[in-house]
Each structure stands twice: as C-alpha cells, then as structure tokens.
Design a protein that fits this description.
Blueprint lengths: L2 H13 L6 H21 L9 H22 L7 H14 L22 H20 L1 H25 L5 H5 L3 H11 L16 H6 L8 H5 L10 H6 L9 H11 L1
Helix pairs in contact: 2-6, 3-6, 5-6, 6-8
The structure holds zinc ion (ZN) (2 copies).
C-alpha cells in the first residue's frame, strides 16, 4: 500500500469510536436479519408454488444492488451524496487493489452497512412483498420478504469475505472465490465506476455487460480466481493481472505498515 492509502487508513481509524465493535455490529445485522427471516417464514401456510417468490425476490434484490452501486454509490447525487461519500471516497480509498484487507474487527466499520440499514432493507421488502401478494397471495409475500433479506445477508457475508486476507478456504469456496476476484477488480480506481457492480453473485453484471469477464453466465458465476477470461479493455487497464496480487504487492503492504 502506498503512503497516501496508509495515511488515509490511519486518519479514518482515529475517527472510529473507541466503543465500536465490529463483532457487535455483525451480530446485530445477523441477529436482526435472521430474526426477520424466521418470523416471516413462520407465517407461511402452505407454500407450494409461492416458494418461487424466494428466487424472484433474490433476483430483484440483485438488480437493485447493481443499480444502487452503479447509479448512487459511484455518482454524486446531491440529495444522496452521503452514500457516495461513504462508498467512493471512504471505502474505495481505504481499500485499493494494493491492499484490500483488514487487520482488525474495528475495520468492519467501513465494510458493513450502517446498523440502521437492516431496518430499511426489512421495510423495503415488506413493501415489495405486499405488492407481490396482490396477484400471488400472502404466502408469496412472506417468502418474498425472506428472499430479499437473505440476499442482503449474503451481500454482507460476501463483501466482508472479499476484504479478508488470503486463505485456502476462501480460495476454494464457490461464490466466495468468484466475488473476491471480482471485487478486487472493482477496487481499482480506474475500473470502479464501470466494472463488477454486483457484490453477491454477478447476475446483473452479466446481464448488463458490466462483468469484467468475457464469457457466458455459468462461467461468470463460477469463475473463481481465473484471470484468463478478462475483457481486453479490462486487461489493458490492469497494472498487475495476477490474482491474488503478487508477492511484490504484499511486500509493499508490509513495508508501509512497519
Ligand atoms: Zn469493497
Ligand atoms: Zn464500489
């Protein structure tokens, strides 16, 4: 990591409250999200075809994640500039292609959504589920709500996994390995506004042509760490086309920390 990133990190860490705990933050999101899913699924009467609502809600949430990331988090819209600042200015300067990882649970402060966000996601899927219930009934509403919240929890898990240090398990786990490489590409400043806007599974990226990979849907979803399917324009913009980043890059990390 270069001196600029190291200075940004040091300054940001000083602003985190001494009472902040990344474990508590994560436990709140997991507890509230899983509690919500448990409560709504307990209301399901028969299920049947209504279980398809889970996949529909998941796909809609995937498109929503892509659109929010592309059009709000990476564009400065005056009324929503706080979201842009937190993501493009803070998150993308704290984590760059040279250093994507955390050293302490206190740094989860800059990875997780703020604690109130899970309540907003719960309300959004209550509303969408209610609309979905108009043609498809109450079971479809409860299952939609579970699908939408599951997508959010998966987002938090995979985005956090993308910022953990390299580990053989992370390299082998499907979806986790794909997102770790995808998100490393996204964290290059020259590429962040255009490529790899999904943080769960790259479904919308593939659909709208913003995946950095030039291949079909199944290969895009299961790409793992492979770097031989890059679009030429992405390959040309990469200073280092090996993933995980080279030992030289990790050497720079160590030098900057010491
Ligand atoms: Zn990130
Ligand atoms: Zn981003």
């Amino acid at each position: 990591m270069d001196a600029r990133q190291a200075a940004f990190r040091a300054e940001y860490q000083q602003k985190i409250s001494p009472r902040y705990s990344g474990w508590l933050h994560g436990a709140w999101i997991a507890g509230a999200g899983l509690g919500y899913i448990g409560v709504v699924l307990a209301q399901v009467d028969r299920g049947g075809w209504a279980w398809l609502s889970f996949a529909v809600a998941f796909a809609v949430a995937n498109l929503g994640e892509w659109a929010l990331h592309r059009y709000v988090l990476h564009r400065r819209i005056p009324a929503l500039s706080a979201l842009w600042h937190r993501h493009t200015v803070e998150h993308h300067h704290y984590f760059t292609q040279d250093c994507m990882t955390v050293d302490s649970h206190r740094e989860y402060r800059i990875i997780f959504f703020p604690p109130y966000a899970v309540l907003g996601i719960a309300a959004i899927h209550l509303l969408l589920g209610a609309l979905w219930s108009l043609p498809f009934g109450r079971d479809a509403m409860w299952i939609w709500m579970a699908g939408g919240m599951s997508h959010y929890l998966l987002y938090e898990i995979l985005h956090t996994a993308a910022h953990l240090p390299e580990h053989p398990l992370l390299r082998r786990l499907p979806a986790v390995n794909t997102m770790r490489r995808n998100h490393w590409i996204h964290h290059h400043h020259a590429l962040m506004s255009t490529w790899n806007m999904n943080l769960t599974v790259p479904l919308a990226d593939w659909l709208f042509g913003s995946s950095d990979l030039d291949c079909g849907l199944w290969r895009t979803l299961g790409n793992g760490y492979r770097m031989d399917r890059l679009r030429p324009e992405v390959r040309d913009a990469l200073p280092d086309s090996a993933f995980p980043p080279s030992a030289a890059g990790r050497g720079r990390d160590t030098a900057a920390r010491s």
